[in-house]
Every structure is written in structure tokens, then in C-alpha cells.
Amino acid sequence: MVDVAAAGVGFVDGLMVQGLYQVKPPLPYFPGSEFAGRVARVGTGVSGFEPGQRVMGLASSGAFADQVRVRAAALNPLPTDLDDLTAAGFFINYATALYGLRDCGHLEAGETLLVLGAAGGVGSAAVAVAKAMDARVIAAASSKVKREAALAAGADVAVDYSQENWREALKAEIKETGLQMVYDPVGGSLAEPALRSLSPGGRFLVVGFASGTIPRIGLNLTLLKRCAIVGVDWGGASRADPALNGPLMTTLLQWVSNGRLSPAPVSARPMNEVGAALSDQLSGRTIGKLVLCN
Question: Which of 116, 210, 240, 280 has the maximal Cβ count within 10 Å?
Fold first, then answer.
């Protein structure tokens, strides 16, 4: 049993409460999955954790609460380098970023990466992890304040994809380096011009569809570009292989402890504002990872 200090809010949480996610849990459903806090009690036979210990973890549901009960295997001890708010929104987005960029996309040091929706929780985590992997990161976002947030998360440059000719601005940034990878949690009308901007042999990572629209891309583009479209479903992969997350989190937390990874800033609200928080998350009004705190 963990006393919840803060819980992360994701786009998936908003989809789940509407019954629009591909995984549909039985009702009644209690939202919230990732959290940080302190161990309140441990069950018989549990080792490695003790009351009062700071932890972060992942629950199947119910993290938007004062307390949450989880399996000990779903917890990670919290390093002193991570505060509760940052830790509460860390697990899902950073595991997705490392799994996507390293394991699915095989991002190499020195490559140039375009992150769409770079000011959101998913995008800002990808920016931070890509910088930890020594990539050059171009952040794409729709407003000045969002682009500034992406730069604060570590992006090297930012482009405004709300402009009709945003691809021209992108071309100027990749003129010397080319574009080896796109990380796309947005979908919609942004996907095709981003894929068209890839250099031959590039990789396009499909992470999600925060725009609400699943793009239809002609396969002739992959032929002409000699590029790959790769699906990044960390959730599906971790459900199929529960052993996946341990090594991912070990790497990420080691990077935090040794200073290689600097997590992006988060936005915090009181736990009792969960309804408004989910609404704002779905509509794209949030900047950075949104967390609810007790």
C-alpha cells in the first residue's frame, strides 16, 4: 500500500474513461496508473520495500487517489535525484521514449530526430531521452510558449508546425544533417509532411494519435524514401513481456542519477481537479507532463 504524493495524467487516461482506448477494462473503472509516494504498508512475504520508503510505480488503475495498492514488482525505489512530481509522470512516457528510440528505432548518437508534439508529456520525454542518447533534436510545436517548453526540455531547435509552410522551416534546419528519424505521438495532418521530410533510409516512429485522427499514408512514399514506418506500442509490448520494464527503468534511473538524463519540467495541479485535468489533456491545452498532487 502506497500513500500517493502525486499521479501522472496521460492522454490514455482520458481515452480510458470514455471507453475509447483499445484496452477496455471492466466497469467500474478507477482512472490513474503512474504515481509516486511513500510505502504505507507491505504484505506478508514482501521484501525490498519498507514503510516510509519513497517509491514510484505503475498500477493497473486507481492511482488518482490518496492510496493505491500494487504488487511490489510494480514499484521502483525513488532516487534522491527525482522529486515526487517529476517521478509521478516519469514511468510511462520515459519508458515509451527509450523503448521507441533505442529498441524500435535504433537511434544513433549524432543522428537528427524530429519530435512532433514536443511540448506534451510524451514529446518532452522523447526530447529528453534523445538528448541523453546524444542525438540532435528538432522540436515541433504549435505555439511560442510550447516551443519554449520544448527547448527547456533539451531540444536543440524548434519549428512551428501550425504554419502552412512549416516543412520549409524544417528543411532549413536539416539542410546539413538530413533527418534520420521522426517521433510522432500526434498523427493527423502532420504525419505525411514529416515522413516526406525524412532522409532516405530514415525511420518514422508511430507513437500515438493525440490529434484524434489516424493518418493514411501512401506506401509509395516508403518505397521512394527507402524508409521504415515502425510502430511503438510500449504498453502492448510490456503486457506481452512483463520483464521488459525492469531493464528500461534501470537504465533511465541510472541516467538520471549520473546526470545523463535531465527529465523535462512537469505541470502540477491538485488531485481534486482531475476532471478538468483530463479535459485539458485531451484538448491539448497542457504543456509538459501533467501531474496531480495530494
Answer: 116
Let me know: does 77 contact 54? Beta carbons within 8 Å. yes
Cβ atoms 61, 34 nearer than 8 A = no
Which pLDDT score is estimated for 163?
92
Q: Which residues pair with 120 in a beta bridge?
A: 288
DSSP 8-class letter at 103:
I
Q: Angle 11-18/274-283 helices, nearest 10 degrees? A: 110
Q: How many domains does the chain have?
A: 2
- Measured distance CA(240)–CA(105) in Å, rounded: 19
Q: Cell triple for residue 86? A: 517529476
Question: pLDDT tens for residues 192-218?
Answer: 999 999 999 999 999 999 888 999 999
pLDDT exceeds cutoff 80 at 34: yes
Residue 33 three-state SS = coil
Are 184 and 96 in contact by the 8 Å Cβ rule? The answer is no
Evaluate whether 97 touches 125 at the Cβ level (below 8 Å).
yes
Torsion of the alpha carbons at 178, 104, 255 and 209, rounded to the nearest 10: 80
Q: Name residues whose C-beta falls within 8 Å of residue 224's C-beta, 6 or more positions apart in sequence.
A: none
Q: Are residues 148 and 53 in the same domain?
A: no
Q: How many CB atoms lie under 10 A from the CB of residue 165?
A: 9
- Residue 227 contacts residue 198 (beta carbons within 8 Å): yes
pLDDT class for 148, splitting at 50, 70, 90? very high
Q: Judge contact between 55 and 77, C-beta under 8 A.
A: yes
pLDDT of residue 254: 94
Domain interval for residue 208: 92-235
Read off the CATH number of the domain in which 153 is found. Answer: 3.40.50.720
CATH number at residue 81: 3.90.180.10
Supply the DSSP symbol for 26.
Answer: P
Positive or negative: CA dihedral 286, 288, 292, 294: negative
The DSSP element (H or E) to which 228 belongs, if any, is strand 228-231
